[in-house]
Automatic annotation (TrEMBL):
Belongs to the integrin alpha chain family. This is Integrin subunit alpha 11. It comes from Cyprinus carpio carpio. Keywords: Calcium, Cell adhesion, Disulfide bond, Glycoprotein, Integrin, Membrane, Metal-binding, Receptor, Repeat, Signal, Transmembrane, Transmembrane helix. One of its GO terms (molecular function) is integrin binding.
Length: 1026
C-alpha cells in the first residue's frame, strides 16, 4: 500500500476531519484539529498541509480561532473549530465550523455555533453564524440623574447608581450605559460607548460628583438624553431605555409632554423613579410630583417607582432590574429562544447559492437546518418541522442536522438532505426543499430500522455516471448491531427518475470484524478502475480494536457492488495508527500521476493513500499446426519420435486509467518475466512468446489438450494493478487430427465377435463317467448348455476389429441377464500392424460400459469378460449382449451387436442321508423336487409282508420291530436340473421300540442297603480305635 502519513497532535485531535483542497495554484490537505489550543483556551483550528511525494510534510496552522462577531461578548473556549470542513472547488474557498462557539447573554451563554469562511489565499473573509440572535439584553440604557441641591445625601444616590449598574450585563452585544446629570443644566457624565464592561462603568460611576443647581429642569434633561446621549455611541437596532431619577417637580414641566411624546416616537422606553426625601423632610404633599413622574413613565403600572428617601433607593434595585429584563429584548418571530443552543455548524455543506448548516441543538435538540446566503441567513420557522417531528417526540432529541447534504433529482432539481439519528431512537433522514425566504417543505422521509443504530448520522450522495444527476443516496448507521457486535451498516437508496428514494440493499464490513462503526464516515470518489462509474469509500474507525479500517466499494450500472473490493486496515499502513477512517475524502490527483488519491483521518494523523493505475492484459494463443497429428512423428525427443507443434502466446496491455511511468508495467507469464511496457503513448502494447510442444504417450485422443496461460505483474507492490474484473488466465484447446478423409466425421466399420465357455451336450458328455448320465442318454433340445455343479463363472471371449476409418470414443456396452454379475474385463491382445507405437487404453465405468481410446483402421482388440453366477437370482437361461459404438457414423451397424443366449441345464450334486434329510450340495437351488418314500413291512429275506397303512404301537406284542423303508428322488420333467441316475432309490431301516414303565429292581434296593450298613460299621470301628 502506497501511503504517506502526516502526523499531528493527538491531544488536539489532529485528523478529526480531512478535506482535499486546491488554492494558490497548489494542492493542499486541510486537516481539522478541534481540540487545538490557543494560549490557555482550547479553541480548535485547521491546518493546511502541502500535498506532494516529499517524505516530510510541514503543516501550517491557519489560526482561524480569530473568527469573531462584532459587538458580541463571545466565548471561544472549547468551540471545536475544525470539527467540520467543507471545500468549494468552484472558487477554492472553504468553510470551517466550530459548533460550540458561544456568546454571553445576561447570565447565560448561548452555544449557537460559528463558521469561518476562508478564501483561496487562505485569508479569513467573514464569519457565518446563521443561528446567532441578539441577546434579550441588547439595550442602550441612559440614566438621567437629578443632581440638584435638593438631593441629599448624594452618596445614597451614588450607591443606588452603582448597585443598578452592577445588575446590568454590560458588554458587547448586550447593555451599553450612559449617565446624564442635570439640575439647572444638563451634563453627559459618560456616553454609551465609553465603557464596555461592568467594572469600567462602576468605576466611572464612583467618580461622578453632584453638580448641584437651584432648579430641576427634567424636561430639558430628557430632551438632551434623547437627542444627544442616544446619538453618541448608540446602536440603531438596540432597545432604548431611559431611567429618570429625580426628587422634585420640574421647573420646565410645560415642556414635559412634548419631550415624552418625542421619546416615544424614537421608541425609547421611559422609567420614572420618584425620590420623596425632600417632600418628607419638609412635610410637603407629593401628589403633583408623583403625577409628573407617572406621566414620564411609559407604563405607569410597570415603569414607575417611588421611594421615601434617598436611602431607600437600594430597595428597588432588584425590582428595577427584573422589570427591565423581563419586558425587554423579546423577539417577535419567536425563534430567539429556540436557537439559543442550536450548535449550528455541527455539519456543513456547500450548495449552489450558499452554505447549508446543521443545528442539532435547535428547538430543544430536535434540531434544524439553516442556510447562509449572500442575501443573509435563512431560518425556517419551527412549524416547518412539526409534521415530521411532532411535539410529543420533542424530548427524544432527534438531532436533525447531524449531517446535511444535497442531491440533484431529475424531477425536483436540487433537494436538501438532513439526518436525524436519534429520531424516535431509530433515526430518520428527511429530503426537503428550502427557499431563501425560509419556506421549508419536507418531501420524503427515510426511516432507520434498529434502535440506537444512529441511522442518518452520515450521508453520501453519488452520481455514478457523472451525468449531473444523483443516482444513489447512501445513509450510514454506524452503530447498527449485528450478531452481537456493533458492526455498522450503510443503506443504499436509488433515486428514480420520478424522484422517489427506493431501498436497494445494504453494505457491511467484513464478517470477521467485531465493533467496527462501519459507516461513521463516507466519501464518494471519481472513477478509479476505468469502468466509468464512481466509487465509494466507507470508514470503520473502531475496527481491529480501535485501530480502524476503510472499505472501497466499486460503482456499477445503477448501483454499488455489494461486496467491497478492497479493505485497508490501519495495521497495513502503520502499526501506531488509531481511529483510522474517522474521516475520508477524495476528489483530486494529489501527486500528479493523473489518478484520484484518497485522504483518511486518524487520531493525530492524516494519511494519504496513492491510487495505482489499472491495466488489462489480453491473452490469445495460436497453434501451428492447428491440430495434433499423432500419426506424423516429426520430432525426436529423448530418442523417441514424437509429434511436435508450436504455441504462440500474444499479450496485449490496455491501460484502464492513466499510466505516467510505463516502465513500471512488467508482465510475467507462468512465473516467467516477459517484457516491460516502454511507451506510454501506445494505448495497447503487444508481445508474442512462442513455445515448442510435443506429445508423449497420449492415451485419450478424443478430448483436446487444454492449455492454460496465467499472467501477472512483475512487481505487485509497485506500479499499476491488474483489473480484477478482467481475466488474467486463458484456457485454449488443441484438438487431435482424426486421421480421416473428412476432418469433421470419420466412417469406421467396427466388427464385434464373441463366444462363451459354457459346455454344450457334446462337450459335456465327452467324458466317460458322464456317458450314462440322463442328459447324455436322452436327446433333448439342441442349443442347451450344461452347467456343472462345480462351475461358478462364465467367460466370454470377444474380438473387436475396425475395418473402416479411425474410430474415436469407442464404447463397449455390456448387458446381461439377472443371474449373472459382471466381474472383470481383460485386454488380452492388441494387434497394431501399421501403428505399433500407438497405445490403446480402455477403462471401465461401472459394470456396463467400457470406454476405449481411438481405434485406428484395421486394429484388432481381444477382450476377456468374466461373469459370476448370482446366488440370489436363478434362471434356466443365460443372456449376454455386447454392443459397440463410436462417435463416427458406422458403416455396418448390424455387426456391432453380439447376443449370447443359451438355455441351461444344471447338474445336481445331492447327498442323501438316512436321517431322511436331503441336502443340496450343488451350487444351484433345486426346485420342483418330488420326494417319494414307500414304507413296507418285509421279512429278513426282503419278502414283502404287508404295506403299512396305519400303525398303533399299543396293539403290537413285541419290544422292538425293524421296519425297512424305500426312498426315491425324482425331478419334475420341466426342471432345468438333472441327476446322475434316472430314479435313485435307497432302503432305510427304522427301529421301533414300544414304550414300557421302568422300575428299580428289588435286589438292587436290598444290595444297596446292606452295602451301606457294612460301610458304616467299618467307619465306627476306625473311629473307636482312634
Amino acid at each position: 500500500i502506497h501511503a504517506k502519513i502526516i502526523k499531528g497532535s493527538k491531544e488536539a485531535q489532529f485528523g478529526y476531519t480531512v478535506q482535499q483542497h486546491e488554492a494558490d495554484g497548489q494542492k493542499w490537505l486541510l486537516v481539522g484539529a478541534p481540540f487545538e489550543s490557543s494560549g490557555e483556551h482550547q479553541t480548535g483550528d485547521v491546518y493546511r498541509c502541502p500535498l506532494d511525494r516529499k517524505p516530510a510534510t510541514n503543516c501550517t496552522r491557519l489560526h482561524l480561532e480569530k473568527v469573531s462577531l462584532n459587538n458580541v461578548f463571545e466565548r471561544k473556549e472549547k468551540m471545536r473549530l475544525g470539527m467540520t470542513l467543507a471545500s468549494n472547488p468552484k472558487d477554492n474557498s472553504f468553510v470551517a465550523c466550530g459548533p460550540l462557539w458561544s456568546y454571553e447573554c445576561g447570565s447565560s451563554y448561548y452555544s449557537t455555533g460559528i463558521c469561518s469562511r476562508v478564501n483561496s489565499s487562505f485569508d479569513f473573509t467573514h464569519s457565518i453564524a446563521p443561528a446567532f440572535q441578539r441577546c434579550e439584553t441588547y439595550m442602550d440604557i441612559v440614566i438621567v440623574l437629578d443632581g440638584s441641591n435638593s438631593i441629599y445625601p448624594w452618596y445614597e444616590v451614588q450607591d443606588f447608581l452603582i448597585n443598578v449598574l452592577q445588575k446590568f450585563y454590560v458588554g458587547p452585544g448586550q447593555i451599553q450605559v450612559g449617565v446624564v446629570q442635570y439640575g439647572e443644566r444638563v451634563v453627559n457624565e459618560f456616553r454609551l460607548d465609553d465603557f464596555r464592561t461592568v467594572e469600567e462603568v462602576v468605576a466611572a460611576a464612583k467618580n461622578i460628583d453632584q453638580r448641584g443647581g437651584e432648579e430641576t429642569r427634567t424636561a430639558l434633561a430628557i430632551s438632551v438624553a434623547r437627542t444627544q446621549a442616544f446619538k453618541h455611541g448608540g446602536r440603531p437596532d438596540a432597545k432604548k431605555v431611559m431611567i429618570v431619577i429625580t426628587d422634585g417637580e420640574s421647573h420646565d414641566s410645560p415642556n414635559l409632554r412634548k419631550v415624552v411624546e418625542e421619546s416615544e416616537k424614537d421608541n425609547i422606553t421611559l422609567y420614572g423613579i420618584a425620590v420623596l426625601g425632600y417632600y418628607n423632610r419638609r412635610g410637603i404633599n407629593p401628589e403633583a410630583f408623583l403625577r409628573e413622574i407617572k406621566f414620564i413613565a411609559t407604563d405607569p403600572e410597570e415603569h414607575f417607582f417611588s421611594v421615601t428617601d434617598e436611602s431607600a433607593l437600594k430597595d428597588i434595585v432588584d425590582a428595577l432590574g427584573e422589570k427591565i429584563f423581563s419586558l425587554e429584548g423579546t423577539n417577535q418571530n419567536g425563534t430567539a429562544f429556540g436557537l439559543q443552543m442550536s450548535q449550528a455548524g455541527f455539519s456543513s455543506h456547500i450548495v449552489e447559492d450558499g452554505i447549508l448548516v446543521g443545528a442539532v441543538g435547535a428547538y430543544d435538540w430536535n434540531g434544524a437546518v439553516l442556510k447562509e446566503t449572500r442575501q443573509g441567513k435563512v431560518i425556517p420557522p419551527k412549524s416547518s418541522y412539526m409534521k415530521e417531528f411532532p411535539e410529543e417526540l420533542k424530548n427524544h432529541g432527534a438531532y436533525l442536522g447531524y449531517m446535511v447534504s444535497s442531491v440533484i433529482s431529475a424531477q425536483h432539481g436540487q433537494l436538501y438532505v438532513a439526518g436525524a439519528p436519534r429520531f424516535n431512537h431509530t433515526g430518520k433522514v428527511v429530503i426537503f426543499t428550502l427557499t431563501n425566504s425560509g419556506n421549508l417543505t419536507i418531501l420524503y422521509s427515510l426511516y432507520g430500522q434498529q434502535i440506537g443504530s444512529y441511522y442518518g448520522s452520515e450521508l453520501a450522495p453519488i452520481d455514478l455516471d457523472d451525468d449531473g444527476l444523483t443516482d444513489l443516496l447512501l445513509v450510514g448507521a454506524p452503530m447498527y448491531f449485528y450478531k452481537g457486535w456493533e458492526k455498522g451498516r450503510v443503506y443504499i437508496y436509488t433515486i428514480s427518475l420520478q424522484g422517489f428514494f427506493i431501498p436497494d440493499g445494504t453494505l457491511g464490513p467484513s464478517e470477521k470484524t467485531h465493533d467496527s462503526r462501519f459507516g461513521a464516515a463516507m466519501s464518494t470518489l471519481p472513477d478509479l478502475n476505468g469502468d466509468g462509474f464512481s466509487e465509494l469509500v466507507v470508514g470503520a474507525p473502531l475496527e481491529d480494536n480501535h485501530k480502524g479500517a476503510i472499505y472501497l466499494f466499486y460503482g456499477q450500472q445503477n448501483s454499488i457492488q455489494p461486496k467491497y473490493k478492497q479493505r485497508i486496515a490501519a495495521g497495513d499502513i502503520f502499526p501506531g495508527l488509531r481511529y483510522f477512517g474517522r474521516s475520508v475524502h477524495g476528489m483530486m490527483d494529489v501527486n500528479g500521476d493523473e489518478l484520484i488519491d484518497l485522504s483518511v483521518g486518524a487520531l493525530g494523523a492524516a494519511v494519504l493513500l496513492w491510487s495505482r493505475s489499472v491495466v488489462r492484459v489480453g491473452i490469445s494463443i495460436h497453434f501451428e499446426p492447428s491440430k495434433i497429428n499423432v500419426f506424423n512423428k516429426d520430432c525426436i525427443r529423448g530418442g523417441r519420435e514424437v509429434s511436435c507443434m508450436l504455441a504462440t502466446v500474444c499479450l496485449n496491455i490496455t491501460p484502464r486509467t492513466p499510466i505516467t511511468d510505463p516502465k513500471t508495467v512488467g508482465i510475467w507469464l507462468d512465473d516467467k518475466f516477459i517484457f516491460i511496457l516502454e511507451n506510454k503513448n501506445h494505448l495497447c502494447s503487444a508481445e508474442m512468446v512462442s513455445y515448442c510442444l510435443f506429445t508423449q504417450e497420449v492415451t485419450d485422443y478424443t478430448h483436446p489438450l487444454i492449455f492454460s496461460v496465467n499472467v501477472g505483474l512483475q512487481n505487485a507492490d509497485e506500479g499499476p494493478v491488474l483489473d480484477d474484473g478482467w481475466p488474467t488466465s486463458l484456457q485454449s484447446e488443441l484438438p487431435f487430427w482424426n486421421g480421416c478423409d473428412n476432418d469433421d466425421q470419420c466412417v469406421p466399420n467396427l466388427v464385434l465377435q464373441s463366444s462363451s465357455d459354457l459346455l454344450d451336450r457334446r462337450q459335456f458328455c465327452g467324458r466317460r463317467e458322464r456317458s450314462t448320465w440322463p442328459p447324455c442318454v436322452h436327446q433333448r433340445t439342441s442349443g442347451e448348455r450344461l452347467v456343472e455343479a462345480s462351475r461358478r463363472k462364465v467367460l466370454v471371449e470377444a474380438r473387436l476389429e475396425n475395418r473402416g476409418e479411425n474410430a474415436y470414443g469407442t464404447i463397449l456396452h455390456i448387458t446381461h441377464s439377472a443371474n449373472l454379475q459382471f466381474s472383470s474385463l481383460v485386454l488380452k491382445v492388441c494387434s497394431l500392424e501399421k501403428h505399433p507405437d500407438l497405445i490403446v487404453f480402455c477403462v471401465s465405468f461401472g459394470f456396463s460400459v467400457v470406454l476405449c481410446s481411438h481405434f485406428v483402421s484395421f486394429i484388432q482388440v481381444y477382450f476377456r469378460l468374466e461373469f459370476e453366477f448370482s446366488r440370489s437370482v436363478f434362471l434356466n437361461y443365460v443372456q449376454i449382449t455386447l454392443r459397440v459404438s463410436s462417435e463416427g457414423e458406422e458403416m455396418s451397424p448390424e455387426d456391432n451387436i453380439n447376443d449370447i443366449y443359451h438355455n441351461l441345464k444344471y447338474e445336481m450334486f445331492l447327498l442323501k442321508l438316512f436321517v431322511l434329510q436331503i441336502q443340496n450340495l450343488g451350487m444351484f437351488p433345486v426346485s420342483e423336487l418330488l420326494f417319494t418314500l414307500n414304507v413296507f413291512a418285509v421279512t429278513r429275506n426282503a419278502n414283502a409282508l404287508l404295506r403299512l397303512s396305519d400303525l398303533d404301537i399299543t396293539q403290537v406284542k413285541f419290544k422292538r420291530l425293524d421296519l425297512v423303508m424305500t426312498a426315491v428322488v425324482e425331478l419334475s420333467p420341466s426342471s432345468p436340473m438333472f441327476l446322475h441316475e434316472e430314479r435313485p432309490m435307497r432302503h432305510i431301516i427304522l427301529e421301533i421300540r414300544k414304550e414300557e414303565e421302568y422300575r428299580i429292581p428289588i435286589w438292587v434296593i436290598v444290595g444297596s442297603t446292606l452295602g451301606g450298613l457294612q460301610l458304616l460299621a467299618l467307619l465306627v470301628l476306625a473311629l473307636w480305635k482312634v
